Amino acid sequence: MSKTVNLELLQRRVQVLQQMVALLTVCCVGLAAFLWLFESRGNVRAAASESLRVKRLAVVDDKGTERIVIAAPLPDPVVQGERFKRNGAISGIAIYDPDGNERGEDGGTLFLFNGKHDGAVLTTHSQPTMEMVQNRKIIFKNPSDAPDVRD
Fold first, then answer.
1. Cβ distance 96 to 103 under 8 Å?
2. CB–CB of 53/70 below 8 Å?
3. Are the C-beta atoms of residues 79 and 112 closer than 8 Å to each other?
């Protein structure tokens, strides 16, 4: 082979390599643009979401034990490791202890207050009690001889 043929062969190979580099560059730029558009559209969709529709939402701890469940309907409660049948289907929020038992078996308390220190307290702990509070003072309690709930 002469030097001229070798030079022409090398020039053709360089041209092919240049074309391949150009094609790969175009492909990389196109892929980057596609990924950028895909990602930005996904973010726009997520930001525009106004609602989330699920039948059940569970929050679990590090061990995978359900600690809070929001469901329609709620599962039957577990107390002391034993599952009990509810009187009827209910929807709402259940809070569980680290062992998976539904809390509230010994009673529960609900506090509803505004920024003016007015509100209501309902409890089932020592006995069912309702308090109405205005400006941090109890204005109604039933039963009247029940201990103050807010202590």
1. yes
2. no
3. no
Residues in Cβ contact with 83 at an 8 Å cutoff, skipping those fewer than 6 apart? 76, 77
Residues 6+ apart with CB under 8 A from 77: 83, 84, 86, 94, 102, 105
The pTM (predicted TM-score) of the whole model is 0.45
The contacts of residue 137 (CB under 8 Å, 6+ apart) are none
Buried b (16+ CB within 10 A) or exposed e, 87-123: eeeeeeebebeeeeebeeeeeeeeeeeeeeeeeebeb
Rounded mean pLDDT of 22-47? Answer: 72
Residue 32 confidence (pLDDT) above 60: yes
Cis peptide before 147 (omega within 30 of 0): no
